[in-house]
Write a structure and sequence with these properties.
The complex is a heterodimer of chains A (about 120) and B (about 110). Chain A is built from no helices and eleven strands. Helix content of chain A is about 0%, strand content about 50%. With about 120 residues, chain A is mainly β. In chain B, β4 and β5 form a beta hairpin. The chains are: A mainly beta (about 120), B mainly beta (about 110).
Chain lengths: ~120, ~110
């Protein structure tokens, strides 16, 4: 059974850097074709694709946020970490991590999400 | 970046109705499109991948069609559990993009 869970601060101040960790089980991020992505959703708004890392360490970023995002993986710990610099109140959102394989192409299993509020 | 436009943004329907949601891409996706269902306070759930493939465990009343730049999600007979928000997502390009969502409400 595949599960993912997001963790990190619930409150960050403007200009700070956000670090979120996705801890997963039921699969390995060293298996060919597997990826883990990050998606966010501001309150009452639509989903926004942020970043994706593949088993071979190929990394993809949203063009509009690329300068602020870094995604990394620790295969031995079954974790993927997303950092976002220079946080702003508009970055207040629920942040999700999700599993992807080349079979689906889409995100087939999602974490429960974690709400991050940006406020001074 | 590829833009995804969903319509309508809100849809009012009754139990038993046939419902169709459209998603248009700013450039061709081949069939690299997915549909998700999201209920309030919950993570999205994958319904359809590769434009028309039904995810395991998803009821057969859900179907997807289309290719290139225009795609549709159809619910053949709306059930009470189907009142939710639906999102399309492209994964053809370097990155992915979601549509703006369609909220299906009770009429």
């Amino acid at each position: 059974q595949i599960t993912l869970k997001e963790s990190g601060p619930t409150l960050v101040k403007p200009t700070q850097t956000l670090t979120l960790t996705c801890t997963f089980s039921g699969f390995s991020l060293s298996t060919s074709g597997v990826g883990v992505g990050w998606i966010r959703q501001p309150p009452g708004k639509a989903l926004e694709w942020l970043a994706l890392i593949y088993w071979d360490d190929d990394k993809r970023y949203s063009p509009s946020l690329k300068s602020r995002l870094t995604i990394t993986k620790d295969t031995s710990k079954n974790q993927v970490v997303l950092t976002m610099t220079n946080m702003d109140p508009v970055d207040t959102a629920t942040y999700y991590c999700a599993h992807r394989t080349t079979f689906h192409g889409a995100f087939d299993i999602w974490g429960q999400g974690t709400l991050v509020t940006v406020s001074s | 970046d590829i833009q995804m436009t969903q319509s309508p943004s809100t849809l009012s329907a009754s139990v038993g109705d046939r419902v169709t949601i459209t998603c248009r891409a700013s450039q061709s996706l081949s069939n690299w499109l997915a549909w998700y269902q999201q209920k309030p306070g919950k993570a999205p759930k994958l319904l359809i991948y590769k434009a028309s493939s039904l995810e395991s465990g998803v009821p057969s009343r859900f179907s997807g069609s289309g290719s290139g730049t225009e795609f549709t999600l159809t619910i053949s007979s709306l059930q009470p559990d189907d009142f939710a928000t639906y999102y399309c997502q492209q994964y053809n390009s370097y990155s992915g993009t979601f549509g703006g969502g369609t909220k299906v409400e009770i009429k």
